[in-house]
Amino acid sequence: MTLSDHPAFREVQWIRRVWWVMLLIGGIACLTWYSFWQQILLGRPVGTNPGPDWAIAATWLLFGIGLPVLLLTMRLIVEVFPDHVSIRYVPLLRRRIMTAEIAHFRARSYRPIIEY
User: What is the DSSP secondary structure assignment for residue 92, as one 8-state letter?
Assistant: First the structure.
């Protein structure tokens, strides 16, 4: 093992620590579960102009199961090695930035929602 096998710095950030994101996704998931339960399992159309069963089932799969699972497993991993910086946004993105490509850096505190 060489020195470059171990990061000098490592940080893991989980999106599930942001309570309002989880509350929003939980609300959307609950609505899709309710629609699926009423229309598919009980056979009662939801709303005054109900969607077809396949659309309700697809929405339930995407937003009732898929989105919550994605957000529960999603995390940002930043690792600093002597020769590169590794950024992984599991399970979506992986990027390696070589140290020679970095022109300038500084530590700073920020508030991402306000500064966006």
Answer: T
